[in-house]
Amino acid sequence: MLRLPPLRYEAPSTLEEAVALLAEDGALLAAGGSDLVPNLKRRQYPTARTIVSLRRVADLVGIRVESDGTIRIAALTTLATVVEDSRLPKVLREAAGAVASPQIRNQGTVGGNLCVDTRCDWLNVPDTWRQAAEPCLKAGGEMCWVAPAKKDCWAVSSSDLAPVMVALGAEVQLIGPDGRRSIPIEQLYRNDGMAYLTKTTEEILTEVVIGPHAGLRATYRKLRRRGSIDFPILGVAAAVRLDDADICTEARIVLGAVASAPLRVPTSEEVLVGRTYNAETIAEAAEAARKLARPLNNTDLTSRYRTRMIPVFVRRALEELG
Ligand SMILES: Cc1cc2nc3c(=O)[nH]c(=O)nc-3n(C[C@H](O)[C@H](O)[C@H](O)COP(=O)(O)OP(=O)(O)OC[C@H]3O[C@@H](n4cnc5c(N)ncnc54)[C@H](O)[C@@H]3O)c2cc1C
Description:
Blueprint: E1 8-10, H1 15-22, E2 27-30, H2 36-41, E3 50-53, E4 63-65, E5 71-74, H3 79-84, H4 90-97, H5 102-107, H6 110-114, H7 127-130, H8 161-167, E6 171-176, E7 179-184, E8 204-210, E9 217-223, E10 234-242, E11 248-256, E12 263-264, H9 266-272, H10 279-292, H11 303-321
Parallel strand pairs: 1-3, 2-3
Antiparallel strand pairs: 4-5, 5-8, 6-7, 6-8, 9-10, 10-11, 11-12
Helix pairs in contact: 9-10, 10-11
Bound molecules: flavin-adenine dinucleotide.
């Protein structure tokens, strides 16, 4: 049985106290802990000293829908709550419902899902397994075992909600030592398996805001080996707006689990916008997505299979929206 290393536990009651605690060496933020705790048990964070839990901070739970349709989801709202809230877009409820299992959705939060650590077959194994080889870049070593010729870490962005939130054009609110700020969620992510978030370690995501989205059609498709529990090994979030003549006026296509950040596919979007939405343009957009993404062999199933599934999943998603 894997056990947690000895750690100090802090549960502050205000965000300001939490931000101050996060400035200490070796402090890690915990929401539901459903990803952080298994990672700690596998000794993925050897410098960890203190867990700063958000559980006692008031006002970090709940969903508000404003009169103009703007949706505000507080960071500690559980995935199960999102699944059950009929005021939310279907795409969001379905993506939240595709995460892990009912038990994990009861524990896991929206903020935790959006900030969830990147994953790699060489990293997400117990410490003893990792010691059988030189540590990889993310484990403090000199090389990436997946792409040894490269100098970067290729651990995979494995959040189900992140591509959907990017497709919906959401914003996130952050609080840190310099106060509060709001950024488009796309800017929260960096395509780097180690430093995969652009925010500082002291900054806490407090809320996700989805602006009015009437008329936007959106869907999410997830590839995984089993029907539950498994992380995505490909996620496709698509959002389009069509006018009365079936001309596509807006498109966002975002791939999950094929890079270290949710990957927007501008080439597919350009194919769609301004043209009639039909089988031909959908096929072109799907092919453009295949050309952009380069999944590697560091998650379940082979990179070749996942690459071949990209146009299939993009096409199915876009057909569903037609
Ligand atoms: C068996 C198993 C299967 C899983 N399957 C899936 C899956 O299919 N899809 C999927 O998306 N995830 C999956 N997960 C990962 C995880 O359970 C979910 O992503 C969950 O939503 C994480 O939320 P949490 O509140 O538990 O995050 P935590 O584990 O508490 O935190 C995760 C990370 O986010 C950071 N963080 C948490 N909250 C904030 C915040 N408010 N501001 C800034 N940083 C924050 C933490 O510091 C940590 O780095 C799975 C996990 C397990 C164990």
